[in-house]
Write a structure and sequence with these properties.
This protein has 329 residues and is of the alpha/beta class. The chain is built from ten helices and 13 strands. It is elongated and about 70 Å long.
Length: 329
């Protein structure tokens, strides 16, 4: 029997939820944007597929990221913005946003860059910075609340023209952001931090990125996550959601009993033997696999019998399916 399957583009209204005493492991894979440009229309989809799934269609990632980084109190009904110091790589005819893991920014460098840009930022946002570390700077969105933005995870490695912030409700907000962005770019162009980085052959921090604008009260986690008792995965979004829901969290791959766990894995092939062992040892009854082929949400339920290769040779030892066959089913 093939696994139960459900495919959709957003959070299901009647999701495949666990009933009774069924011991379930939920495994989510990261998703990419749909390859068909016709799916975009005249603007990108807001958020990567897994960001929309975890946070809801408004994708208010900034307050969840803030929640994951600190224990400070902030108004759940106030829109929060996330700023990130980034490098824009110049090609022949456009600029490409480099990912945070490509620039090797230190805590000290980030603090110095923030210190130099802080008067400009706080003047335009009309609010002080709430919290910062080397990767993220958070503050109330203020006049930029209605700005439509896209995360670094979604835009990195691509021509930024398509991913720049856009007006959504009030005209002129995107232009106001670009003015601030340009002022910070000019300021950082002569900053000692960048002079030192260039001397060591490192990419300069030549721009600032804004994303994730939204309210904590607008976060809409999916049922499989809300029903979990443990969360595992190294992305700060999952850490923030676990804190919001009061669920225990670990950035590491689980080694203990997987029943009730929600795992976000970028290397599921390494985790697959542990899942198979959990079925074999009767620690779990079901695996819910969540992935996003062509940008569309797909939820599938696997039971113990679904993880073995089909064979008419009943006298032979059953052979486990490799991960590549499971994910391609």
């Amino acid at each position: 029997m093939p696994p139960k399957i459900r495919e959709m583009q957003s959070n299901p209204s009647t999701p495949l939820v666990s009933t009774g005493n069924i011991r379930r492991l939920t495994l989510m894979l990261s998703g990419e944007d749909a390859l068909d440009a016709a799916d975009f229309g005249d603007k990108p989809s807001k958020g990567l597929p897994h960001e929309r799934y975890l946070l809801g269609e408004l994708v208010p990632s900034a307050p969840i990221l803030l929640l994951s980084q600190t224990n400070i109190s902030f108004d759940p009904n106030e829109s929060i913005a996330c700023l990130q110091p980034v490098h824009l790589h110049a090609t022949r005819d456009h600029l490409i946003l480099m990912g945070q893991n490509q620039i090797d920014l230190t805590e000290n460098e980030s603090s110095k860059l923030l210190r130099s840009a802080l008067p400009l930022i706080e003047e335009d946002f009309h609010h002080p910075v709430l919290f910062h570390n080397k990767q993220f700077w958070f503050l109330p969105a203020g006049p930029f609340t209605s700005l439509a933005t896209y995360s670094v995870d979604q835009a990195h490695g691509r021509n930024i023209d398509w991913w720049m912030p856009r007006d959504s409700q009030e005209e002129g907000i995107a232009k106001r952001w670009r003015k601030l962005q340009n002022e910070i770019q000019m300021l950082w162009h002569i900053d000692p931090v960048n002079e030192a980085r260039e001397q060591h052959g490192m990419p300069s921090i030549n721009s600032i990125w804004i994303s994730g604008i939204g309210k904590l009260s607008d976060v809409n986690p999916p049922e499989p996550l809300k029903q979990s008792t443990h969360c595992y995965g190294d992305h700060p979004l999952l850490a923030g959601l676990a804190k919001l829901l009061g669920i225990s969290y670990s950035p590491n791959r689980p080694n203990e009993n997987l029943a009730g766990a929600f795992v976000w894995s970028n290397q599921p092939e390494l985790f697959w033997p542990k899942i198979c062992a959990s079925f074999t040892h009767h620690q779990i009854d079901e695996l819910m696999l969540i992935d996003f082929p062509n940008g569309k949400l797909r939820e599938r339920i696997f039971s113990a019998k679904d993880i073995y290769k089909k064979s008419w040779a009943f006298w032979k030892t059953k052979e486990l399916l490799p991960w590549s066959e499971v994910v391609s089913k």
